[in-house]
Design goal:
mainly beta; about 140 residues; about 15% helix; two-stranded antiparallel sheet; SH3 type barrels; five-stranded antiparallel beta sheet
Amino acid sequence: MHHLVQQFEQEQMVGKVVPDFHIGDTVVVKVKVKEGERERLQSYEGVVIAKRNRGMNSAFTVRKISHNEGVERVFQTYSPQISDIEIKRRGDVNRAKLYYLRDLKGRKARIQEKIVAKKDIKKKAVKVKEETVAAE
């Protein structure tokens, strides 16, 4: 039974392109918002403070400061509501979860930028390949 669920999850993830972002990175998540009959894209920019890797149930938390108030939002990584994830800048942190940012304000809540080699600046993306799903 577990094998069937795993295979179904792999089939659902095929073709979904997710950039290779890490904790501390500043990202822009474009979310599809439906208002009545029309649908539009809403951008949410902030720092990734947590990631949860669980296959199809993977999620990440983005924190931003809006009108001097901290706002956090949890996104499902493979959700059809997410149109695009763009990496604005890389952060250099030594923790897996940045929950300590909740208590910091102003300049103390800043994250040092990671210096990346020129060859690594290109946007890397993790794409689930159809071959791995077909092999199972």
